[in-house]
UniProtKB/TrEMBL annotation:
Pfam (any one): SDF
InterPro entries: DAACS, Na-dicarboxylate_symporter, Na-dicarboxylate_symporter_CS, Na:dicarbo_symporter_sf
Membrane-topology descriptor: Multi-pass membrane protein
Keywords: Glycoprotein, Membrane, Symport, Transmembrane, Transmembrane helix, Transport
Predominant location category: membrane
Protein name: Dicarboxylate/amino acid:cation symporter
Source domain of life: Bacteria
Organismal lineage: Bacteria, Pseudomonadati, Balneolota, Balneolia, Balneolales
């Protein structure tokens, strides 16, 4: 058994803590510029490495998974289960968020003068998100289906936001390979199988620098939030403390209630063992704020530690990283009601039901758009006729909360992959000996 300090999740945790300490010291001592120029780039390189291998990993592993199938109905059945469970968990997340924010009423704790300061300080950041949200709403109802089918594979592969297109192409290629004579298809299967093994080995190499990358990312986040005056960050967190608390309580309840129920219904795996298997991916998701960047690690942990068959993980997880946003959707609900409360607007039951429907649809329709969280929130606010300028009230703490909701998004993707694997008879034994 490895010594505790040699275990990956502990190394990442230490990196997070040291990055937090460094960021605070940098803000107090006034060398934020040094941190931004010479430390934060290490974190950026780490994220870029993860993003670099995400597309080839999904492409190769999914082709291998499809070619191992003898029955195409299994693939369609798996897809139906995946989308259905994702939609149900998203609706549950939004409902929990609305319940928590209506109980806590965080908008009532925001002083009027603080509200004015936040509105004036962050007003200029809203225009771009409003324009992007309008572009999403102007699209046809079936535009997201059109977006799944690419017109150019290489163009799709150049952007990790097009992961659904990569999934579509991989499935198409896999089906094509098994439909041609076996002697012709076998070399392609062998190639993609070997290519997949190479990518997984590269993931192992990248994870060697994970603690350093996480340290740099965390230091950069703190410096970005505080600048050269840590008191500004503390004042901001204090003013929006009840709002942040409402989001965090909602996220925690969603994990403990919805995902634990999912395991009881669709799996015999212990919830605690699941978290042991997925810890490095959750910590990376927290530090990077990107489900796509963390995808290679999530797939690796679910296959090699949680016992999820590659056939399931390579299909369910890329889709989840694109359209399953439980944490983000819950945040939309809390933020929308908080902004309404802060602006003195009372939302009716009908408007709150509208939040559930709009946030659920927006989580799919804006999945591939950069800054999807804020764009989704603009769409939700416009649907319930709340001034979008109110987003300025929450932008100051959005980066920290984004880290938390991304961790929940990744947990949700992984939990659904366990449920789908179990129902398909493709959930093997767990391997936690290295943890």
């Amino acid at each position: 058994m490895k010594k505790w300090y040699k275990q990956l999740h502990w190394q990442i945790m230490i990196g997070l803590i040291l990055g937090l300490i460094w960021g605070l010291l940098a803000s107090i001592a006034g060398f934020s510029g040094f941190t931004v120029d010479y430390i934060q780039p290490i974190g950026t390189i780490f994220i870029n490495l993860l993003k670099l291998i995400a597309v080839p990993l999904v492409l190769a592993s999914l082709i291998v998974g499809v070619t191992s199938l003898n029955d195409m109905t299994k693939l369609s059945r798996m897809g139906g289960k995946t989308v259905a469970i994702y939609i149900v968990t998203t609706i549950c997340a939004i409902t929990i968020g609305l319940t928590v924010v209506n109980i806590i009423q965080p908008g009532d704790f925001l002083p009027a003068e603080t509200q004015q300061e936040l509105m004036s300080g962050y007003q200029e950041n809203i225009e771009g998100s409003t324009q992007s949200a309008q572009e999403v709403m102007d699209r046809s109802p079936l535009a997201f289906l059109v977006d799944i089918v690419p017109e150019n594979l290489f163009a799709s592969a150049s952007d990790n936001g097009n992961m659904l297109q990569i999934v579509f192409v991989a499935i198409l290629l896999g089906i094509g390979i098994i439909q041609i004579p076996k002697e012709k298809g076998e070399p392609l299967i062998t190639f993609f199988d070997s290519f997949n093994d190479v990518i997984i080995k590269i993931v192992d190499y990248i994870m060697i620098i994970a603690p350093y990358g996480v340290f740099a990312l965390m230091a950069g986040v703190i410096v970005e939030l505080a600048g050269d005056d840590i008191s500004q960050a503390l004042d901001l967190l204090g003013a929006l403390g009840w709002y942040s608390l409402a989001v965090l309580i909602g996220l925690l309840l969603h994990v403990l209630i919805v995902y634990s129920s999912l395991f009881k219904l669709f799996s015999k795996m212990k919830f605690s063992d699941f978290f042991k298997a997925i810890r490095p991916a959750i910590l990376l998701g927290f530090s990077t704020s990107s489900s796509s960047a963390t995808l290679p690690v999530t797939m690796d942990r679910m296959e090699n530690n949680a016992g999820v068959d590659e056939e399931v993980s390579s299909f369910v997880l890329p889709i989840g990283a694109t359209i399953n946003m439980d944490g983000t959707s819950l945040y939309q609900a809390v933020a929308a009601v908080f902004i309404s409360q802060a602006l003195g607007l009372d939302l009716s039951i009908a408007q709150q039901i509208t939040i559930v429907l709009t946030a659920t649809l927006a989580s799919i329709g804006t999945a591939g758009v950069p800054g999807a969280g804020i764009i989704m929130l603009v769409i939700v606010l416009q649907a319930i006729e709340v001034p979008v300028e109110g987003i300025a009230l929450i932008l100051g703490v959005d980066r920290i909360l984004d880290m938390c909701r991304t961790a929940v998004n990744i947990t949700g993707d992984a939990a659904v992959s366990v449920a789908v694997a179990y129902t398909e008879g493709l959930l093997g034994d767990m391997h936690l000996e290295d943890d």
